[in-house]
């Protein structure tokens, strides 16, 4: 296992991080299975575990808490908030009112007195940066969180938040958690240059592109990734972006084979090769999934392989841009772009 410094915090984290989204009802993973996954991950040298309040409406946090009991000090523990937690209109977002309340809920579910990294799961356009950062700074000073970060923020919002922190003398986001893979490289053109400029650590989610790069999606074969059952439209070959991905996967499979690598090793090695990336978040549902992903722990792709990947998917290109989660709200809601 390799380790890198998380932004400018001085904290050393493994280049593969364990994501716990699949723990519980989402991935149909039981407590015993989740604990076995955590055990195997820690034994392999992974020391960063990432979850969120909305994963199974708190179920993932509860399962992570039970799995790490007695080993808390050896783990960099991260969770997130702002996504809806129920139907109540104020049980969501990045207001001080909700963040203070929901952090206590997360700490209770996790069974700990603090988290190492508390992340704003999505940018909340209804709340000022000063409101959110001041709440996070107070929670940090109270000892309930060690650091705080963002997740899936557009580049301009990262810059704005850094400016607001300096302007109002508040703590700043020290990490960003974007979607990044060989098939979705758009952040190379805007987000990653910003994180490098400000020394922000990057925890990349979906490095296997929802199963597209796991080896479970190939031409002429049934799709075996579980995501195809939950989001069938993302794998429908009648959709042009999916055909583009399928063509890319076939070419990448040849590159992997010639390099003596699995598709998973190629995919994870690509993500961790970028100098701006601190860690790639893997989200196994089973210990077998974890085993195949751990095989990439020490994978270092040579320059010629990276060049071949660039020839398949050009730097800064998203093959499925409509699946991104950082689109400015005005592009999604006509009322925000019309007088």
Describe what is shown at a glance.
Helix 1 (31-43) packs parallel to helix 10 and helix 8 (240-259) packs antiparallel against helix 11 (303-312). The protein is an alpha/beta fold. It has helices at residues 31-43, 59-68, 96-110, 129-141, 155-167, 191-198, 227-230, 240-259, 263-273, 287-294, 303-312, 329-332; strands at residues 3-5, 12-14, 16-19, 48-50, 76-81, 115-120, 145-151, 175-177, 201-204, 279-282.
List descriptors:
alpha/beta; 8-stranded parallel β-barrel; two-stranded antiparallel ribbon; 10 strands
Commentary on this structure:
- There is one protein chain.
- This protein has 339 residues and is of the alpha/beta class.
- It has twelve helices and ten strands.
- It has helices at 31-43, 59-68, 96-110, 129-141, 155-167, 191-198, 227-230, 240-259, 263-273, 287-294, 303-312, 329-332; strands spanning 3-5, 12-14, 16-19, 48-50, 76-81, 115-120, 145-151, 175-177, 201-204, 279-282.
- Strand 4, helix 2 (59-68) and strand 5 (76-81) form a beta-alpha-beta unit.
Rg: 19 Å
Based on helices, strands and strand pairing, what is the structural class? alpha/beta
In whole angstroms, the N-to-C terminal distance is 54 Å
Order of helices and strands: EEEHEHEHEHEHEHEHHHEHHH
**What overall form do the CA principal axes indicate?**
globular
Total DSSP E strands:
10
Into which percentage range does the β-strand content fall? Answer: 5-15%
Q: How can the largest sheet be summarized?
A: 8 strands, parallel, barrel
Binned, the helix content reads: 25-40%
Separate helix tally: 12
* Residue-averaged pLDDT: 95
Strand order of the largest sheet: 3-4-5-6-7-8-9-10
Unreliable parts:
none
């Amino acid at each position: 296992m390799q380790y890198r410094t998380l932004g400018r915090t001085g904290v050393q984290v493994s280049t593969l991080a364990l994501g716990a989204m699949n723990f519980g009802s989402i991935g149909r993973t039981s407590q015993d299975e989740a604990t076995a996954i955590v055990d195997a991950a820690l034994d392999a040298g992974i020391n960063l575990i990432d979850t969120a309040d909305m994963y199974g409406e708190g179920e993932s946090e509860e399962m992570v808490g039970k799995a790490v009991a007695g080993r808390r000090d050896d783990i960099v523990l991260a969770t997130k908030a702002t996504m809806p937690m129920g139907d109540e209109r104020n049980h969501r977002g990045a207001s001080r009112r909700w963040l203070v309340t929901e952090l206590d809920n997360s700490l209770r579910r996790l069974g700990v007195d603090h988290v190492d990294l508390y992340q704003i799961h999505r940018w909340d356009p209804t709340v000022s940066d000063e409101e959110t950062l001041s709440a996070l700074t107070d929670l940090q000073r109270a000892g309930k969180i060690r650091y705080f970060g963002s997740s899936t923020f557009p580049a301009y919002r990262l810059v704005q938040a850094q400016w607001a922190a300096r302007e109002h003398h508040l703590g700043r986001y020290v990490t960003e958690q974007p979607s990044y893979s060989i098939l979705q490289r758009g952040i190379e053109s805007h987000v990653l240059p910003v994180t490098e400029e400000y020394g922000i650590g990057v925890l990349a989610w979906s490095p296997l592109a929802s199963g597209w790069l796991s080896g479970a999606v190939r031409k002429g074969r049934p799709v075996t990734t579980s995501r195809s059952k939950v989001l069938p439209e993302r794998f429908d070959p009648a959709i042009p972006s999916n055909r583009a991905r399928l063509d890319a996967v076939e070419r990448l499979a040849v590159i992997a084979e010639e390099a003596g690598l699995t598709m998973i090793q190629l995919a994870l090695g690509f993500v961790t090769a970028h100098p701006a990336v601190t860690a790639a978040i893997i989200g196994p549902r089973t210990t077998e999934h974890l085993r195949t992903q751990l095989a990439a722990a020490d994978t270092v792709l040579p320059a010629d392989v990276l060049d071949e990947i660039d020839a398949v998917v050009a730097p800064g290109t998203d093959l499925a841009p409509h699946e991104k989660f950082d689109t400015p709200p005005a592009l999604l809601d006509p009322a925000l772009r019309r007088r």
